Amino acid sequence: MPNRSGRPAKGDQNNSKEKIINTTVSIIRKKGADSVTVRNVCTEAGLSIGTFYHYFRDKDDLLMYFLRETSFDSFDLETSVSDIAGRISELYMHLIRRYMELGLVFMKSFYSTGNRSLSAYMGEVDGTFASGTVMARSETEIQNAQDHGIINENADVHELCMDICTIVKGCVFEWCLTDGTMDIETTLYRIIRSLITNHLASIEHK
Q: From the CA atom positions of the chain, what is the Rg in Å?
């Protein structure tokens, strides 16, 4: 096996990383996310395994790239916090549109139970969402709404965010099942609004 600490040739670093990413997309579209391995990515990309490990720790780290490419920490949202359901829907639609850009065939293969990177990203560790993820930003937004008296003070913010995350995963899965014909934005807002309405502090915010 080539040296895991290998480094691409000077001036070729961006090109090598792009080859790895593009090759991975091609493999997923043809065979599914479960078929991605470090070796077959490198073989099809014409790169050494050492070059792969210069950019990614392992297969899961590579697949996580497609989710963590954008940090949600400082994402600008247009919807007012007074419409917290709309604000959270807007937030998640940024992630979903990234999915859509990858294409329906890609997403049908990527959004699988065998994709550990997806499970790791769309989940929690020791009761905490990873920094920079859409879930962490969602929790910040809902906590802010609670602090401003919009969300009931007795609501469990973290649990509410976990429920929203489950809704989002279900909507994306349904979008895949319907071959992309579902109006995912409208559906997502309707279901999130229905959930959050039960946690609003007063009728004025409904």
A: 19
**Residue 164 CB-density burial (10 A; 0-12 exposed, 13-18 middle, 19+ buried):** buried
Determine the Cα–Cα distance for residues 201 and 206; give it in Å rounded to an integer. 9
Buried b (16+ CB within 10 A) or exposed e, 42-63: bebbebbbbbbbbbbeebbebb
> How many residues belong to the chain?
206
What tens digit of pLDDT does each residue of 10-28 get?
556 568 999 999 999 899 8
CA atoms within 13 A on the CB side of 34: 6
Question: Mean pLDDT for the chain?
Answer: 86
Tell me the whole-structure pTM to 2 decimals. Answer: 0.77
- Distance of alpha carbon 148 from alpha carbon 170, whole angstroms: 29
Does domain 13-56 fall under CATH 1.10.10.60? My reply is yes
CA distance 84 to 81: 5
